[in-house]
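ok so for the tutorial part 2 we go from a plain amino acid sequence to predicted structure tokens. step 1 is just haveing the sequence, like this:
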Amino acid sequence: QVQLVESGGGLVQPGGSLRLSCTVSGFTLNHYAIGWFRQAPGKERERVACINGGGGTTYYANSVKGRFTISRDNAKNTVYLQMNSLKPQDTAEYYCATRLVYYCSGYAREYDHWGQGTQVTVSS
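step 2 — the prediction. this is what the tokens look like for a chain of 124 residues:
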């Protein structure tokens, strides 16, 4: 059974940092792409970062480029999202997801398996 579990969210001040973790089970992590998405109230779910199977290629939304870094530790079955220089507009529920395909997709509708989400709030 495919499962993804996010952790690491919380309340942080503007300019601060958080590291989110996505621990997976039920499939071999290094074969498949993993995406990080976020959804703020009243807004569509958007992809913020993605890493291909094997970890050789990463993608970032323009709004987070240079501030967020996606990485994976296959031995720990975990994908990370390091978030630095956080802004109030980064406030959202963050999800990790996979479509059990090697390559990333930018479309949330193409992902079949989702975690339960972790809340990130950036506020002073």
